[in-house]
Amino acid sequence: MLSSKEISMLIEATGTSVYMTLASTLMAYVIGLPIGILLVVCAPGGLKPKAVLYKILDFIVNITRSIPFLILMLLATPLARLVTGKSYGANATIISLTLAAAPFIARLVESSLLEVDKGVIEAAQSMGASIWQIVFKVLIGEARVSLIVGSTIALGTVLGYTAMSGAIGGGGLDVAIRYGYSRWDTKILLATVVLLVILMQIIQIVGSRLSKKLDRRLTH
Predict the structure, then answer these.
(1) Cβ count near 3 (within 10 Å)
(2) Crossing angle for the helix pair 4-41 and 90-114, nearest 10 degrees?
């Protein structure tokens, strides 16, 4: 059985992980959403093709996505220290989580927007809609269900990242590493796994219900 001290530690760690996951995913969307939109708009055959800009963005996203998360966290340490004044802890880890999640989110957004029926886009163009009207009212409007599903995937991925952040003292449910693995405390390790599974299920359930609610095809 877990002691009251261990239970208290796990509750605090869970709260910290939820905070890091939500904050870093939100910040990553601030970066990744516009990049994903630009990748679609500026692509060859897009609404406003710009080959140079597209290639630059595509290259940056591919490069950053190819860097393993733990290595990216180490590379982001100077930036985290500059922004937060520390190279460890939850707030510093959010910087690394944001940098790791942003290119992933950019690809999720790009993929969702590319699923929109080109006929709908052409219809909007024929009615004289501007590029940004098409982006916000047609592309994002039509792809909203896919975007919600993508955000669910992003949240789950970032949550998984938080559990690995113990390598640089990230905080949260990295207790699986700090106590469960390093000290080989099986109770803490198993409890952390259960908590991560529960949090993941909550994310999946909320995302699934929200996407179904927004899906017009299921309400008409």
Answers:
(1) 9
(2) 40
- pLDDT (tens digit per residue) in 7-57: 887 888 888 888 988 999 999 999 999 999 999 999 988 888 899 999 999
Residue 161 token pair: 């990242």
Secondary structure of 185-218 in HEC code, one letter for each residue: CHHHHHHHHHHHHHHHHHHHHHHHHHHHHHCHHH
C-alpha–C-alpha distance, residues 109 and 111, integer Å: 5
Q: How far is the C-alpha of 15 from the C-alpha of 41, rounded, in Å?
A: 38
The 8-class DSSP code of residue 26 comes to H
Q: Which residue has the tokens 């609404």?
A: 47
The Cα-based distances of 45 to 52, 126, 145, 168, 218 in angstroms read 14, 17, 24, 43, 31
H helices of 42-166, in order, are 51-66, 69-75, 77-84, 90-114, 118-126, 131-133, 140-142, 144-164
